[in-house]
Amino acid sequence: MKITKDLYQGSLALLTDFYQLTMAYAYWKAGKGEEEAVFNLFFRKHPFQGGFTVAAGLEYVVDYCRNFHFEKKDIEYLAGMKAPDGSPQFEKGFLDYLENLRFSCDIDAVEEGTVVFPNAPILRVKGPLIQCQLLETPLLNILNFQTLIATKAARITLAAKGEPVLEFGLRRAQGIDGALAASRAAYIGGCTSTSNVMAGKLFGIPVSGTHAHSWIMSFESELEAFEAYADAFPDQCVFLVDTYDTLQGIKNAIKVGEILRSKGKEMVGIRIDSGDLAYFSNQAREMLDGAGFPNAKIVASNDLDEYIIASLKSQEASINVWGVGTKLVTAFDQPALGAVYKLSAIRTEEGEWQPKIKVSQQTLKINIPGIHNVRRYYSQGKAVADMIFLEDQEVNPRGTVIIDPLDPTRRKRIMPAFYQGEDLLKPIFKDGKVIYSCPPIEKIRQRTKDQLGSFDKTHKRLVNPHIYPVGLEENLHHLRMDLVLKAKKFEDENE
């Protein structure tokens, strides 16, 4: 499915920050536009103070880049821009360059559903400097949000301990685009269905839903409303029982359930959307079981998140299905991932790759130079460590040391010969052509489940998770430190 074509009927090349275009123009003016460069997209901290992050959004990236070009109407818009002195913002030669530009970059990325960690690239772009620069904002927009929501969904589904989690967030999401992307990412993260019918159509996600309080209120009595709903949907009745009195609502649901059973049908369950969910779910379970409906599901909603679900679990609430909306699709407790996109290498006139470093007073903001990949090591199917390494250097199979990029005293010795290794960055585009086939969303969702299953439970704790070891291979660590010291020496000499 082509997401951009379906939603926007064309290229989204202008979905960028203005400074990307001004830099592109300046590169063009300086004759640097066709220089080859490498940029890495990565994040610096796990969201939600967690111990893992789930990558999502790659299919959007593929569609965006496949359709990347400046249309005539885009060029006309840019031609109408004025500089402060009233002259055209961009020369005609540059606009002609943009109009004739065709995407020609290489992109390597982790597959959707992969568990990823701070400072390790989740996407790498190699190609002409102007093209790489113009991709920064849209790639960050896509991957930041979907990765954030997929991670939140994974945390929520882990808290639910295998019970279905329904995504109900459309009405509270950040606009139409946010709602669609959130539904997709939530499903990748582990939700079993969405209430968003458009997302169901576009992405093939199962849709689900019951009825609202307004349905009940439109009838003279709750019992009459339940009976009418059962008449309309005899095979999928989940009754919302808390419009007036929750316990009486459960009794009315049981009465209609008995009518359905007399017709050879079964009530699916009830939904509770307010009040003390632990108390009412336990009361409902007792009443349903006593009336001969032990298989009726109890669905709970009402501003749920992973912490509330975990609390309800600890209270032994009798809830079988969880409906989660606002706090999932808005990433309520952390509204942004904060991934960044940094230049890591430039090809010189001699054809050699020159690593690039950004130095900062904050160690967190010093990037990793060179062209590198991430290798995950497994032992008997369990992830033991991730190594960030230079692609043009061999890793000693007899042993190497990985060094935490933020704290060089944190080190771990890796014996590659004793582990199974997997390089996480996969080829997606080569010379601007797609060479990767995006899997069906069901397979992406299963990958998330399999990936999470390969990590120890201590890394998946909601609070104070154990830190999974991720580090720079020692040669890359030394390159980075040499470049930092060289840059600082240059700064000192020029003060």
UniProtKB/TrEMBL annotation:
GO terms for cellular component: cytosol. Residues 167-349 form the Nicotinate/nicotinamide phosphoribosyltransferase domain. It comes from the Bacteria. The keyword RNA-binding does not apply. CDD domains: NAPRTase_A (cd01570). It catalyses: 5-phospho-alpha-D-ribose 1-diphosphate + nicotinate + ATP + H2O = nicotinate beta-D-ribonucleotide + ADP + phosphate + diphosphate. Pathway: Cofactor biosynthesis; NAD(+) biosynthesis; nicotinate D-ribonucleotide from nicotinate: step 1/1. Residues 14-144 form the Nicotinate phosphoribosyltransferase N-terminal domain. GO terms for molecular function: nicotinamide phosphoribosyltransferase activity; nicotinate phosphoribosyltransferase activity. Its EC number is 6.3.4.21. Transiently phosphorylated on a His residue during the reaction cycle. Phosphorylation strongly increases the affinity for substrates and increases the rate of nicotinate D-ribonucleotide production. Dephosphorylation regenerates the low-affinity form of the enzyme, leading to product release. Gene3D superfamilies: Aldolase class I, nicotinate phosphoribosyltransferase. Keywords: Glycosyltransferase, Ligase, Phosphoprotein, Pyridine nucleotide biosynthesis, Transferase. InterPro entries: Aldolase_TIM (IPR013785), N/Namide_PRibTrfase (IPR041525), NAPRTase_C (IPR041619), NAPRTase_N (IPR040727), Nic_PRibTrfase-Fam (IPR007229), Nic_PRibTrfase_pncB (IPR006405), Nicotinate_pribotase-like_C (IPR036068). Belongs to the NAPRTase family. This is Nicotinate phosphoribosyltransferase.
